[in-house]
Amino acid sequence: MPSPGPGPLSLVPFVSVADMMALVNGIGAERFLVELAAYIEADFRRWHMFEKTPRLATHSKEGVIELMPTSDGVEFGFKFVNGHPLNTRDGRQTVTAFGMLANVRDGYPVLLSEMTILTALRTAATSALAAKYLAPKGSRTMAVIGNGAQCEFQVLAIRALCGIDTVRLYDIDARATEKAAHNLAGSGISVVACASSQEAVEQADIITTCTADKRNATILTDNMIGSGVHINAIGGDCPGKTELHRDILLRSDIFVEYEPQTRGEGEIQQLDPGHAVTELWQVIAGQAAGRRDAGQITIFDSVGFAIEDFSALRCVRDQLARIGQPSKLDLLADPDDPRDLFGMLRRAAQTAGAAE
């Protein structure tokens, strides 16, 4: 009797949290961020090849659960992700995620991966990629407002791609700033803990806002932003959640990932629907201007888009050999006869009965 156990097509490579940490630590966090940014940049250059749709989101008073799919016609990828700002009160992550990459040809998954760590990495890599094209040349100082789980990834990515050497930190919770400063100790980056957002942005060339509160907030007021800076606004990522005062937007050039999604989720939800924005891929592909002069204020209104997650999954898939032998999950039914799925179920029952 054929075995009802896993067949050759049953097993799907699975990158666990432990695998992901081993992969990133083995390569080095900054090196991994550079490689990941290269994958995102390459996919942005072939933007027209992807299916694009705003993510499917289920909102509640506690947070949001989202599904983010895309395909380049050869492979299909999706990410399941949540955003629950109050989770930290119970010792839980604000954001958790997992994702899958599959062949379009036969629909079979080729990779299942944790994406809680990977989302933090891809968000930082995308921010750094935007800063590479939009930040003032020779930027040396960045400010990070909101020093939670994303903070250190942002700093390391922008150091790796843009060459900053100083970061100014502020969070309403001083313990978060202490945590970030501790984690960045020994990195070679000069860390300055600040007493306010105003103090943090002083002398900063690049400003990153990554707060988690799910409400219309004003993290940066108009008087805090002088000419020539670049802002990565990454905390506002759903309806009703913003970080920048509207007046900052009105005197800045705004860049987004996918305009139809950002209109409802990003900082530009505060503006008229026809307000001009530029999609970042156009700058990367040389189809639109990025930073034009030293006095220009640029904003990357980032909400996260599925193509970035697709790029991240591709990057990890191509690095599997560095993990050694990743786990494999018995995820797919693989009957001896593909038309006899019930027979596979029946044989399993018979085998179980014979073993009793």
3D structure, described in words:
This protein has 356 residues and is of the alpha/beta class. The chain folds into 2 domains: 11-117 and 308-343, ornithine cyclodeaminase, domain 1 (2-Layer Sandwich), CATH 3.30.1780.10; 134-304, 3-Layer(aba) Sandwich (Rossmann fold). It is 35% helix and 23% strand. The chain contains 12 helices and 17 strands. It has helices at residues 17-27, 29-45, 116-134, 151-162, 174-184, 197-201, 246-250, 259-265, 280-284, 306-318, 320-323, 341-355; strands spanning 11-15, 56-59, 64-71, 75-83, 97-103, 109-114, 141-145, 166-170, 190-193, 206-209, 216-220, 230-233, 242-244, 253-256, 278-279, 298-301, 327-330. The strands form 3 sheets. It has an 8-stranded parallel sheet. A 7-stranded mixed sheet has the order 2-3-4-5-6-1-17. Helix 1 crosses helix 2 (29-45), helix 2 crosses helix 3 and helix 3 (116-134) crosses helix 10 (306-318). The radius of gyration is 22 Å and the shape is elongated. The model has no long low-confidence stretch (mean pLDDT 94).
Which helices and strands, and how do they pair?
Blueprint: E1 11-15, H1 17-27, H2 29-45, E2 56-59, E3 64-71, E4 75-83, E5 97-103, E6 109-114, H3 116-134, E7 141-145, H4 151-162, E8 166-170, H5 174-184, E9 190-193, H6 197-201, E10 206-209, E11 216-220, E12 230-233, E13 242-244, H7 246-250, E14 253-256, H8 259-265, E15 278-279, H9 280-284, E16 298-301, H10 306-318, H11 320-323, E17 327-330, H12 341-355
Pfam families: OCD_Mu_crystall (PF02423)
Keywords: Oxidoreductase
EC number: 1.5.1.49
Compact description:
Belongs to the ornithine cyclodeaminase/mu-crystallin family. This protein has 356 residues and is of the alpha/beta class.
